[in-house]
Amino acid sequence: MERIEYVRVPKGLENVIVDKSSISVSDPEGELIYRGYEIGDLAENSFFEETAYLILKGKLPNEDELGDFISKLKRERDVPDEIFEIFIKLKGKYLTPIDVQRIGLELLMAYDEKWYSQSYDDLILRAIKIISKLATITANGYRIIFKNKEPIKPRYDLGHSENFLYMLKGEVPDNFSSRIFDITMILYMDHDFNASTFTTRCVGSTLSDIYSAISAGLGALKGPLHGGANEKATEMLLKIKDENDAERYIMETLAKKEKVMGFGHRVYKKLDPRTAVAKKIFAKILEKKPQYLNMYKIMLKFEEVMWRERKIPANVDFWIGPIYYTLDLDIPLYTPLFALSRVVGWAAHYIEQVQENKIIRPKADYVGPRGLNFPYKRNWLSKL
Ligand code: CMC
Questions:
Q1: What is the pLDDT of residue 313?
Q2: Structural contact between residues 81 and 150, judged by C-beta atoms closer than 8 angstroms
Q3: Closest CA to ligand 1's atom 42
Q4: Considering the entire predicted model, what is its pTM?
Q5: d(CA 276, ligand 1 centre) in Å
Q6: How many domains does the chain have?
Q7: What's the pLDDT at 67?
Q8: pLDDT value at 1 more than 80
Q9: Could you tell me if residue 375 is inside a domain?
């Protein structure tokens, strides 16, 4: 038998490149690129639908392609009423809004007769369906289950972000809020082989369907070390009174060897480039809403002390959670909002994975016992 040479890689696959991808790349020096374009450039100049097209299809759309993509997204906004009827039955259960996204997504599959298809064109259509309907599910699932309110039908004259905020709140957002929200959606859209994307790709690598793969991605994003950090960081910041209190909190947390939420990153060791954009957004917010100045000063203090003490920079979640807070969005929605955008990346990665597939199936370094004798000899087969 041919001898297999196993390759041992670091725990957590740290610094291990596992496959090729042409979707996005994050660089330790503080760069993030989507399909060749730098994140700051896209955040300042693009909008959700255009960047989503870029991520999914690999190139910027021309005017016709963009118009067609936007119309398809709009046509897919409706969600079957039965899904909302199921949501009504889930009121008061032990669920968070991201679980509702997962449940809603899996129910959506039941209404898609080609859920299993893996042809490129069918997958792009499935991606459009999922991106668009997940927004309706998120807004209305939250309204129904957590707010005891009626669902709101999507509007077809509004952009993706605007329509989402409209369904959530029941009123069309002002331009300032919807633009800021839209920029955060660009910042969150993709991030090479992060944990939830890799999860999605693992499921895709078994040639399971796109709904199952994205549902798994949602499960991975929920964790506080990943997307869940934007909620945890905001909750933490709201308990801090001023800059002195920030210093005290960090020193105590580090002394206890606990994590300060919203800091640290597997790739970025100096700067998460998304925080540079997010800080500019926060500065704009302060021009309109000076009541958040204290929060801003506390956040800068956190950055200063974490860098002084551990040389650890803030990550995207540290800044975006508080931005959502200034937009008057409820904290339990922050990770689902991250998902509303990252779903574009998950879909693109799923498609890339199944098109050049090899099942992802590593080996464990088994450290358990061998050669034990099972003590109860029942001999089932000999008695049959
Ligand atoms: N607070 C305090 N210490 C930290 C932090 C933090 N937030 N992050 C890393 N460290 C320390 C860590 O204790 C370790 O120290 P030592 O070498 O002395 O044991 C060292 O820095 C390396 O950290 P690690 O946890 O081994 O690094 P990792 O690459 O395995 O994990 C991380 C990366 C993001 C999971 C981690 O930094 C973390 O838990 N951060 C807090 C949660 C968070 O903000 N997550 C959002 C991640 S970014 C966007 C997203 O994915 O949503």
A1: 98
A2: no
A3: 225
A4: 0.97
A5: 19
A6: 2
A7: 98
A8: no
A9: no
> What integer best gives the mean pLDDT of the chain?
97
User: For position 312, which CATH number holds?
Assistant: 1.10.230.10
157 and 198 within one domain: yes
pLDDT in tens, 24-35: 999 999 999 999
Asked whether residue 178 falls in the same domain as residue 233, the answer is no
Atom of ligand 1 at shortest distance to CA of 272? 48
CA 257 to ligand 1 centroid distance, Å: 11
260 and 200, same structural domain?
no
Q: How open is the CA angle 270-275-280, to the nearest 5 degrees? A: 130
Nearest to 324 by CA among 170, 187, 145: 187
| In a shared domain, residues 94 and 147 | yes
- 105-132 confidence digits (pLDDT tens): 999 999 999 999 999 999 999 999 999 9
Residue 144 sits in the same domain as residue 251: no
Q: How far is the CA of 192 from the centre of ligand 1 (A)?
A: 18
CA of 259, closest atom in ligand 1: 1
Give residue 125 CA to ligand 1 midpoint distance, Å: 37
Distance, in Å, from the CA atom of 266 to the CA atom of 33, rounded to the nearest integer, reads: 16
Phi-psi region of 293 (alpha: psi -120 to 50; beta: other; left: phi over 0): alpha
pLDDT at 2: 81
| Residue nearest (by alpha carbon) to ligand 1 atom 39 | 225
Residue at 370 is within a domain: no
Closest ligand 1 atom to Cα of 12:
30
**Which residues form the domain of 220?**
22-224+332-355
Residue 125: per-residue pLDDT: 98
The pair of structure tokens assigned to 74 is 């709009």
- Binding-site residues, ligand 1, Cβ < 6 A: 12, 194, 225-227, 229, 259-266, 310, 312, 315-317
Q: Mean pLDDT over residues 86-114, rounded?
A: 97
* CA distance linking residue 1 with residue 182, whole number of Å: 57
Among 40, 325, 38, 292, which residue's Cα sits nearest to residue 181? 325
pLDDT in tens, 228-251: 999 999 999 999 999 999 999 999
Q: Whose CA is nearest to atom 31 of ligand 1?
A: 266
Closest CA to ligand 1's atom 28: 266
